[in-house]
Amino acid sequence: xxxxxxxxxxxxxxxxxxxxxxxxxxxxxxxxxxxxxxxxxxxxxxxxxxxxxxxxxxxxxxxxxxxxxxxxxxxxxxxxxxxxxxxxxxxxxxxxxxxxxxxxxxxxxxxxxxxxxxxxxxxxxxxxxxxxxxxxxxxxxxxxxxxxxxxxxxxxxxxxxxxxxxxxxxxxxxxxxxxxxxxxxxxxxxxxxxxxxxxxxxxxxxxxxxxxxxxxxxxxxxxxxxxxxxxxxxxxxxxxxxxxxxxxxxxxxxxxxxxxxxxxxxxxxxxxxxxxxxxxxxxxxxxxxxxxxxxxxxxxxxxxxxxxxx
Length: 310
What we know:
Layout: H1 3-17, E1 24-29, E2 33-40, E3 43-51, H2 57-67, E4 76-80, E5 83-85, E6 88-91, E7 101-102, H3 103-111, E8 115-119, H4 120-131, E9 139-145, E10 149-155, E11 158-159, H5 191-194, H6 196-207, H7 213-221, H8 225-249, E12 253-257, H9 264-273, E13 286-289, H10 296-309
Helix pairs in contact: 2-3, 4-10, 6-8, 7-8, 8-9
């Protein structure tokens, strides 16, 4: 967009969001934690990060909601790391106990509140598009890098979710049909190369040592050879994934979010070392690290729930 169009569009968009005066509860469900808080106009309060048992996810969500003591009028937005359509979760590779469950209807019944459920990457990137790294851009593509790899497309401040709600599963597009088996069951998905489990497994194959992804990137920053090799491979495969999505969607901006994105400089450097796999058009597409951190999910889930309710 031009600077003038930017200004006009976002003045109109944030005037609309300015009606968002009441607090909305945002719940971001991950493979290991729930992140939650009250959201009003993109700002979050009483933010909490709560470790969970992934085998009892629904009870953990209900417990978290109850701790915030919502009234029957409280709007609640919940995001889930899986394939979500009209509140029903059909497949959740990193939370295997959730499959073909209409979590939206279940939570509405249990809480007595209006509840809206969406995919976690959609929530995260919506938060970033409206209030974080993507603010001021019309077409924002985002990758969420963590236990799994998700994706989202936000156009003019709204999630583009496709015909059935499954669009933008960037982590599950195939980059090598002969590659390793992904948690989703397919071979050679992007996630099977750059998800947290894949990175830890690759490092162990080189060093014989079990370490966390956080430690992996710390060691890479110190130029430890095995860690640096894994991070360079990560940049290579992420670069392929980004190039593929840019070729299809031609966004204004690519945002990299999720837990792994906290190693921002190392990620950008690894992409730059593999620049031919990112560069595609005469004008390079800007790539930014997310700004909202752990708060992006609950902020995006709450904002989307408010939009859906109103």
